[in-house]
Structure formats: structure tokens, C-alpha cells
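Check the record.
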Amino acid sequence: MDNDLRRACVVALSELGRSRDYHDRADAGRGLAGFAEMQEAVGPLLELVLDPADTFVTWATAEAVLRRKDRAGLAVVASALAVADSKHIDWIHTAVVDVFGIFSSDRDIAVQLVGELVQDTDDRISRGARQLLESLAELDPVLGPA
């Protein structure tokens, strides 16, 4: 793994995330989602999930990090939920439904990971994880176990 190239990608995508064009910001969020495990990407991802100008950016970025279906992506969304206003919460919840509303196995794994995030030492992550856990608990995925 080339950490220098990965950092360069995060820098470039972070710059794109500051564009005036919402398409650019949404693309930056989708791209940065692939680097969510890197500390350098967390701040820009949070800014994009909480985009003040366009909730499409919120939804696209939240969906991309949630599609990782891992602790890093869930932690970003939990952290954003802890400070989000009602319009951002609605679009984050839409992304949760889009990602975890199909397969019950995906939802169940997310519930387990988010349950661990509730115990996180970062108060913002643990507060948001409680909200995310509630959203996941409300879901009734379309496809259950065979």
C-alpha cells in the first residue's frame, strides 16, 4: 500500500470537496469514502456529510461511507449525526435505508458494529451511534434469512 499516494488522493479529493459545484462535492464525498479509515479523510468527509449548501451532497456522501459496511464508515456517519440538523438527519436516514434496507444480514452486522461505537471514547461518535442504532432498529429489510 502506497501511503503517500493515498494521502495525495485524500488531499485532491478534499480540494474537490470545497468546490462551489455540488456535483463536485458529491463526487468528492464518494471518492473520499474509499479512504474513510484514514484520519486525514475524516474531517473532509464530515464536512461533506453536513454540507451546508446541498443535501444531495449529504445523501451521496453518507451513502458512500455506509456502503463500506465497516466501522470506519459507520463512525463517520455517527459523528455527523451527533451534530446534524433535522434536514441533514433526514437525508442521512435516507442513506441508511438505502444501504441497509435490503438485506437483513447487512443490517444485523451494522447493528453489531454500531453497538460497539456506542461505547466509543469519543463522545460525538457515541452520541451519534445511539441515533444510528435507533435508525437501524426501525428498519425492516426486504430480504431476510433464507
